[in-house]
Amino acid sequence: MATASASNVLRLPGEGLATGLEQLEWAEVQKHNTRESSWLVINDQVYDITNFGRRHPGGKVIYHYAGQDATDSFRALHPDSALVMKYLKPLLIGQVAPGSSTAASIVDGARPAPSAFVEEFRQVRKEFEEQGLFEASWSFFFGMLAHIFLLEAAAYYSIKLLGNSWPVYLLAVGLLATAQAQAGWLQHDCGHLSVFRKSKWNHWMHYIVICHIKGASRAWWNWRHFEHHAKPNVVRKDPDITFPNLFLLGDHLTRKWAKAKKGVMPYNKQHLYWWAFPPLLLPVYFHYDNIRYVFQHKHWWDLFWIATFFAKHFTLYGPLMGGWGAFWFYMLVRTVESHWFTWVTQMNHIPMHVDNDRELDWPTLQGLATCNVEGSLFNDWFTGHLNYQIEHHLFPTMPRHNYAVANKKVQALYKKHGVPMQTKGLIEAFADIVKSLEHYGEVWKEAYYG
């Protein structure tokens, strides 16, 4: 078998193939895919991460790549990969034997070489780095933060100055819900380390935006969101599509549950009871899940910052509405925001391919599991630039104001190699959520009663 060429391997900054390491066959690497024994591969080097999950800043998401090649996902999720490699160095146990990394088929237990699509994707990423598309515009993010504060101030002073009549009250709800939705997109930027060059500055800003401005846990968000990014729409690895007791997604999982007579819901009606999901997600489930996670994992610093959010809210609105009035005002704001958040975050994934882990390469997985929504000034602002979902998933640390620039080259790349990449209108994307739920419901009904 041929030896891997330099073009077939993604070189990380300051890193080359080590010498004198044990040569490990790919088939042997694949065996170590459990929590009891976890190996993963980055740049053809094999790391034993069995006990690293407890110390990994991103949490146990690292185990999603046990027994697999994590080169491209590692590069995507770590802006300073050279620094991170220093922490991984003690875990290095060998390297993939050259022959087993370039086989044309995995039938014999070997691993295929990167496809032309993957190789060109890696080159495109390098070009984006050279063009400065991973450099953030401080004026953009300052503007995002400033307009959030202005919306919050407008909500408060509309009631303080104009009274608590229903028209003014509803105006304040809309203004504060808008501020909260936009803060949700901004905390997302901080969580992906795409605002500042230094990770610790992003971490501190994340505390301020998600904990103090939004009243949610930073650690909880990291746990859910990085698992989603590592394996989007992969059953049992992406928590965002794992609601089998309520909804079934993906033909494979749906048929499996139906034939096993699992679940308690009438899944053929899931497109109808879906409408109860958007108003309940943030006000009910996310509150419960946040509190449970913070106390279970003892994230007391998160709890302190969250407490400052509620102290601010009741200090401002308590004198204007009374304690219970401020509480119900807050819950109504969360309900409005929940509709906004749910439809925007689910439009890119629920209608897309859902399956077990097939160990697809990074750019192919993103094209199957995510879709884009057409860009415009309104769509970009309304969705926090998550209408460019494929670009976001390919390059999670890229500042969102550069997605539109990256989009043209990404579209050309996918088209050239015949890899699916969908772009929809905003309303069409919303409608496809319900249509896909109805489709999976019919699949369930056919398998359950067939």
Automatic annotation (TrEMBL):
Q: Which GO terms describe its molecular function?
A: oxidoreductase activity, acting on paired donors, with oxidation of a pair of donors resulting in the reduction of molecular oxygen to two molecules of water
Give a yes or no for keyword Transmembrane in this entry: yes
Q: Quick one: a GO biological-process term for this protein?
A: lipid metabolic process
* Species of provenance: Acanthamoeba castellanii (strain ATCC 30010 / Neff)
- Name the major location: membrane
| Compartment(s) | Membrane
* PANTHER family the record matches: DELTA(5) FATTY ACID DESATURASE FAT-4, FATTY ACID DESATURASE 2
**Protein name, as recorded:** Fatty acid desaturase 2, putative
What are the record keywords, sorted? Lipid metabolism, Membrane, Oxidoreductase, Transmembrane, Transmembrane helix
Q: Where are the transmembrane segments?
A: 138-159, 166-184, 272-288, 303-330
Q: Tell me the classification of the organism that encodes this protein.
A: Eukaryota, Amoebozoa, Discosea, Longamoebia, Centramoebida
